[in-house]
Structure formats: C-alpha cells, structure tokens
Amino acid sequence: MAAITAADVNKLRTMTGAGMMDCKKALTEAEGDFEAARDILRKQGQKIADKRAENETSEGFVAVAVSEDGTNGKLVALACETESVAKVANFRELVQRILDAAVRTNAATKEDLLATKEEDGLTIQEHITDLMGKIGEKLDLTYATLSAEKVASYIHSDSKKGVLVGLKNVGGADTAAVGRDVAMQIVAMKPVAVDKDGVDSSITEREIEIGKEQARAEGKPEAMLEKIAQGKLNKFYKENTLLNQEFVKDNSLTIAQLLDKTSKGMTVTDFKRVAIGA
C-alpha cells in the first residue's frame, strides 16, 4: 500500500472539510483511494446521526429569503445540540447552502429539499450527514415555504426563531413595517391559527372540555356548563388566534384592526412560525 502523505491528507481535508486525523484514518482504511475515503467519512457521519438520533437539538440558526417581488418566502432552521456548533463557520455556511437550494429549486417540502442535488453531486441530506460526521452532533432541519400577495418575514435577535406571514388586500400600502410588526407578534405570542376557523377541531374540543371541567369544579349547574365553556372558548380564540390577538405594541388594537387601519381590507392569509428549542 502506498504511503499516505501529508499532502494527501490535506487534499482530502480540502475536499471534505473533515478533520486531519479523520482524513488520515479514512485514507489509510481506503488504501489511498480518495473516493473511497470520502465514502468512509460519509458513513462516519451516518453512524453519528444514528447514534445521536434521540439527542435534543435546542440550539441552531434560522435563515429566511423572500423573493424580489415579495410573493414567496423560504425559511430554513438547522438545529444542533450546542451553542458553540451553531456559531461555527461551516455550520452557518451549510444553512446558507440549504436556503439557496430551497430558493433555486422552489422546493415544496422538506423531503424535496433534502433530496436536492448540489453541483458536487451530493444531496442536501448528504451534506447534513457529512457535517454531523465532522462536528459529532445531531443536526435537524425544519423547512417552511409560503406564497401570498405579499410575504413578510422576521428573524428574532437570537437567530433561533423565524416567521413568514402572508398578507392580502395590501392595496398600495407599504407593507414592510406592518408585515414586520405582525411577524414579530407571531414570534412573541405564538398564535395557533390565523383566526378561529383555522383552529384544529381537536384543540376546540379540548378547550370546550377543559371549560366544562373548570365550571363543574366551581360548582356551576350542569345546564350552564356548555354556555360557560363556549365563553371560555371565545376567550381562547381571542388570546390564541392571530387576527383576534391584541397588538403587543398597542393593545387598543387587535391585529385585524391594525391591518385594516393600514390598508382597508388587508388581512393575513397564512403564517409559518419556526422556533429552535421552543
């Protein structure tokens, strides 16, 4: 077997970004075959991914891109295990690579995005697995895309929370400020839906049952339980659906009123909220 030189190790390191010792071991195992060594490093990443599958990923980085015409947004969140990894250059570079791939391919789902092949012949999933091998941590991708008449976005200062929000009936209004305000509201107040019609029926049923149990525990008559529970459900809608929430910057307005005040008839069609570690 040919001797593995420092130049060989450095070449593989440049090709893969893996550590020098890992590159030397891979080249030695592959008997100097660079492609086989790359496969060995990739398998190492998969082993780490399998071993750490149950680990919590509470750190990471969120990135967002909105199309030039403002009608489509892409949001990616790559989660890792430790804060230090979230700050290293190759982690941030991978997040940008994933976001660029989402924009380039207009990926409809996370599965489509993970299957996207890059110029180097590797898929996004393989790039994620490769980085797991280099850093020794579990990585987990979340992806969201949203189209609307106008899409606004926001990333929180910790870079771990992000929002896309779709607006319609914007008229001639400059939506930059109000769109950011609504997106910030979504990050802060965590609405479960745009309005009550968007609340999942299982949530509605659960809230009604909770309301009945609370009223029953307070000694209210059985005949009144349904009415009391409906009142509590309406309070739930007010506090947990976006358009009915009080605007955090001015609680004299609901979000619906804020939008209508900005441009008559403006409203939210949908939103996507992503939060790492929350």
Automatic annotation (TrEMBL):
<comment type="function">
    <text>Associates with the EF-Tu.GDP complex and induces the exchange of GDP to GTP. It remains bound to the aminoacyl-tRNA.EF-Tu.GTP complex up to the GTP hydrolysis stage on the ribosome.</text>
</comment>
<dbReference type="InterPro" id="IPR009060">
    <property type="entry name" value="UBA-like_sf"/>
</dbReference>
<dbReference type="InterPro" id="IPR018101">
    <property type="entry name" value="Transl_elong_Ts_CS"/>
</dbReference>
<comment type="similarity">
    <text>Belongs to the EF-Ts family.</text>
</comment>
<feature type="domain" description="Translation elongation factor EFTs/EF1B dimerisation">
    <location>
        <begin position="74"/>
        <end position="277"/>
    </location>
</feature>
<dbReference type="InterPro" id="IPR001816">
    <property type="entry name" value="Transl_elong_EFTs/EF1B"/>
</dbReference>
<dbReference type="InterPro" id="IPR014039">
    <property type="entry name" value="Transl_elong_EFTs/EF1B_dimer"/>
</dbReference>
<dbReference type="GO" id="GO:0003746">
    <property type="term" value="F:translation elongation factor activity"/>
</dbReference>
<dbReference type="Pfam" id="PF00889">
    <property type="entry name" value="EF_TS"/>
</dbReference>
<dbReference type="InterPro" id="IPR036402">
    <property type="entry name" value="EF-Ts_dimer_sf"/>
</dbReference>
<keyword id="KW-0648">Protein biosynthesis</keyword>
<keyword id="KW-0963">Cytoplasm</keyword>
<protein>
    <recommendedName>
        <fullName>Elongation factor Ts</fullName>
    </recommendedName>
</protein>
<keyword id="KW-0251">Elongation factor</keyword>
